[in-house]
Amino acid sequence: MKKRILLLGLAFLLVSSLTVFAQTANQQSGSSDTTTSSGQQGSNSQKCTDVTRKVGLVTDRYNQSQDKYMNAFQNIFKNIEQVALKFKADGYDTTELEKHMAEYNNMIQNANRYYNEFKVGIDNSKKGVCGNSDFDSGQQFDSARTQLMNCKNEMLQLRTYAQEILKQDLLDLKAQVVE
Predict the structure, then answer these.
(1) Which of helix, strand or coil describes residue 155?
(2) Is the pLDDT of residue 97 over 90?
(3) Which residues in 8-45 are b (16+ Cβ under 10 Å) and which e?
(4) What is the DSSP string of 56-107?
(5) CA distances from 5 to 58, 144, 148 (A)
(6) What is the DSSP letter of 153?
(7) DSSP assigned state of 122
(8) What is the pLDDT of residues 105-134, one digit of tens each?
């Protein structure tokens, strides 16, 4: 997985540096040779097509994984929330669980925010390579990669939080004696 991300990053850097080199060379030559200019445009459009296709494949795979994991985390939240309501109706003290559930929900929102920022960054990077934007494609790609790592870390924390904190809260509720 890390190798693929590294290869994709290198491909972006290579394409962006070639694009900048081609634009610089084209400006220095004064665009006197129209066949070279049209050849570069064809090359740039091919690069744009290749990058767009590769980015589309990667983001589709990430979107599927993100949907699967976020659905699982949201289902955990809903299920524990229903159990907490039943315990509360039976007279148990659920204040600690409710506090932890609010933290868990914030963590879910953070993971979604990081992932959305990743998608925006990768789209801006793609637009930068294709010349449709003023964004620096390399910088946007680095930003997107950082947001993806933040999202992955947040999702790991979500899993750990559910396994350690929320599970312990449920066990503590189970151990309470209704007075």
Answers:
(1) helix
(2) yes
(3) bbebbeebbeebeebeeeeeeeeeeeeeeeeebeeebe
(4) HHHHHHHHHHHHHHHHHHHHHHHHHHHHHHHHHHTT---HHHHHHHHHHHHH
(5) 9, 11, 11
(6) H
(7) H
(8) 999 999 999 999 999 888 888 777 777 666
pTM of the model as a whole: 0.69
Backbone phi, psi, residue 148, to 5°: -65, -40
- Other C-beta atoms lying within 10 Å of the C-beta of residue 88: 15
| SS3 (DSSP) at 175 | helix
- Kindly list the domain boundaries of the chain, sorted by start residue: 2-175
Average pLDDT of the chain is 79
Task: In whole angstroms, give the CA distance from residue 55 to residue 160.
Answer: 30
Q: How confident is the model at residue 74 (pLDDT cuts 50, 70, 90)?
A: very high
Q: 154 or 57: whose pLDDT is higher?
A: 154
CA distance 138 to 166: 40
